[in-house]
Model the fold of this input.
Amino acid sequence: MTKRYMAIWFRHLLTDGLAIRRPELKEMPFVLAAPVKNRVVITAASLAAEKEGAFTGMAVADARAACSELVVIDEVPGKATQLLRLLGLGCIRYTPVVAVNLPDGLLLDISGCTHLWGGERDYLKTIVFKLRDAGFDARAAIADTPGAAWGIVRFAKSGPIVAPGKQAQAIALLKPAALRLEAPVLERLQKLGFSTIGSFIQMPSSVLRRRFGKELLLRIDQALGRVAEPLVSLTPPVPYAQRLPCLEPIRTATGIEIAIEKLLEVLCLRLQAEGKGIRKATLKCHRIDGRTVQASITTTRGSHSVSHLSKLFGQQISKIEPALGIELFVLEAPRVEDMEVRQEQLWALNPGLGDTALAELLDRVAGKVGANAIRRFLPAEHYWPEQSIKLAASLSEKPETNWPEGQLRPMRLLSPPAPIEVMALVPDNPPRIFTYKGKRHTIIKADGPERIGREWWRDKGEHRDYFVVEDTEGQRYWVFRSGHYDGGDARWYLHGYFA
Done:
């Protein structure tokens, strides 16, 4: 697939941004200014100010002489970066790769995106009109390289879309400044009479390098696509994502459901071909008011079942507020995993954790009670019981060790163990009475002790002597004494409840 890029130029970025926040400035000639050495210089001028003769780089005193009604506002450092970032985040709805191009532009990798809007021309118009409706004087151009698109949008008088492979012809008639060259290089080119790029682009590289340095050759190669120019995207692109623009804004739950199903059909087909399944997916709904609402699902194991994933998203549709309408749906799968190809069994009496139906049931339950409410534990090799388990990342994760057998353990374990007050006939005997949370328990049966030693290489605690005890109400508890009765320093703890 041929790479295609779009360059967006905001001719009056700072003044447009200020006029949006302060509508009273829209019809007034105003400029932004900052001190430079011993004078105050215009750093940005509105369109109305330019019509009155005030331009960027002009001293404020000279501009006031040309326009007596000129409004001068102090420049805020870093405002251009902030504005471009916000505008770039808004353009992510059109492509996942958007980069800030200081001081007044954006660069977009639009490869594989334009067909969703009916082609490059409609794609360009959609973005530009959207930005102009927001109040920005925006222009855009499309080419095979970021460098060519940058030069076309700023210096070409017509033809904002360069056909694939035609960037050399498109930039030949442009000024050398269209190559993003530094001022000293531009001055040398002007002195030698090179008024267009075409007048020197075919010259031998050795001659250009000797007279103008490496920068000129690099910019030529970047514009022509000989040297790659990767973009640093505002947000890391998700490898598995699918977009669906809408001809008319979607406002109903039925429309959202249909959009989800269409997106899943395409995305799951790709995942199935690559042997992968979704573990987490996010649906981003871009509304016509400029806001984005989203809903996410998680699965206990990788899945590329359209019906199953649709049901999970169906539980989230009520949380999506379409407002005036949704114009673009984006489905992203930031987390996927490899799926094993399982052979169907005719006799599967106890499929256990490998049963797809179990995983789908857990997903539906998690959609209602929350994914954090369902947990699976695996054994871990530690002495202390509260440290001998760990959370499993998925249903398919295998234990590194086996569960211990032949050891009586409670159904509910307290972590950390809770201190209790104990009365015992003999220090080494089980307790006869213990008090927990103000309630007194009289013990009628006891079994133990079971000694569990401490892990001296990671814990400074004493060894533990565990007892299984039963009180007069028939409740069974797991209690332990930490350390020996040496001078009465040993302490008792409640560690669990039996069923």
